[in-house]
User: Fold this.
Amino acid sequence: MQLSTVRRIDLHCHPNTQEWFDAIEPYVEALRTYWHRPWAPLREQQVIDELKRAEVEVLMVAFDTETVTGCPPCSNDYVAGIRDRHPDVVLNAWASVDPWKGEAAIREAEHAINDLGLIGFHFHPICGDFSVDDPRLRPLFERIDELGVPVLIDVGTTGMGAGSPGGLGRRLRRSHPLAIDDLAAQFPRLKIVAAHPGWPWTDEVLMICLHKGNVFWETSGWGPEYFPESLKRDIPRRLKDKIMFGSDYPSLAHVRLFDSWAKLGYSDELMERVFHLNAERILDLALARRIT
Assistant:
């Protein structure tokens, strides 16, 4: 099968514009070192043109860790605007709320879903310095659960602050997947997508996905050839209905990722599941299919 003929939905795509760079400003230098290449913003149309050339449809990711960094958010209104300006490429976007903003975060969550129609919420526990099972965050997750939308939660290590003294103050334990296990147990109706392979806790993510029917997995941020062996082994087996594609763009280029997936030798049927069928079913994206 030619992968270029398959619908490809990217669950985890950052705007890569100045607005996003402003939101992650403390981490930009560390990211340049971590990824061994220049790291600079593009104009919005340049980003859209790159995504079109990659023949991918994306869910954009907002970013708000203002309490920790003091940086302005890459706001929910902004990513909704990208979606509305480029509906042929951007299917929708993940909202972001800073949990430490309390009632303001809950009001923003309501705005993101009720007014903007975003798909759900992305959380970066390391950069936001929180754990999703913290009891202080329960009112926010109760409201998200009531809104009936999914959440995308980073697990495992991160390039944010990597290699810097003290990791720029970021604590990796914030993204331990057992926090997702607790969240899934507390909110059984809440669809939770674990973002990234979860290294070095990949087996824990696998365990949780197999145990919790409301937990799913997307593989952004890693080249498939570097996936831990347990993940490679179970993608065509116990994870075939739970695994989805993500890039973490601009961290990794889509062409490079698609080439690496093709070399894993998975069946055509499985690749259809990974690249679009699972996302369509789990996130109700079937009606968002681009008309060509």
Q: What stands out?
A: The longest strand covers residues 90-95. The chain has one domain: 3-284. The radius of gyration is 17 Å. DSSP finds 13 helices and eight strands in the chain.
